[in-house]
UniProtKB/TrEMBL annotation:
Organism field: Ruminococcus albus SY3
One MF annotation (Gene Ontology) recorded for this entry: DNA-binding transcription factor activity
The protein's name: XRE family transcriptional regulator
Pfam families: HTH_3 (PF01381)
Cellular component, GO annotation: cytosol
Listed InterPro entries: Cro/C1-type_HTH, Lambda_DNA-bd_dom_sf, TransReg_Diox_bact_type
Domain HTH cro/C1-type, first and last residues per copy: 13-67
Keywords assigned by UniProt, alphabetized: DNA-binding
Length: 108
């Protein structure tokens, strides 16, 4: 069984939070926790409940596997999903089409 490294978990959370340009205050508000608690998690000083882990995953659009174990491909998928969700619904199809064209160009 893989040991959990709280410092690495915290670093992944911080990286994800910053990539979405959330402050610790904003994330704390989204999770209904204190800013100090977010800081402690990011520093690896504290763990979190399953409920908080789930809310964190949903708020940052990343998987719990990425948070706990650092699978980078999961983070990239979460980032792509986040970007697509930020697109206006009526324009989202164009973003998906662009991604499909890009992927097809890699096959050539």
């Amino acid at each position: 069984m893989t040991e959990l490294n709280y410092m690495e978990i915290g670093a992944r959370i911080r990286k994800s939070r910053e990539s979405q340009m959330f402050t610790q205050e904003k994330l704390a508000e989204m999770l209904d926790v204190s800013v100090k608690f977010i800081s402690d998690i990011e520093l690896g000083a504290k763990g979190m409940s399953l409920k908080t882990l789930n809310k964190l995953s949903q708020s940052l659009l990343i998987t719990t596997d990425y948070i706990l174990y650092g699978n980078d491909s999961e983070a990239e998928i979460g980032e792509i999903m986040m970007l697509l969700q930020k697109c206006p619904t009526e324009k989202r199809k164009y973003a998906v089409d662009l991604l499909k064209v890009y992927i097809r160009s890699l096959d050539n």
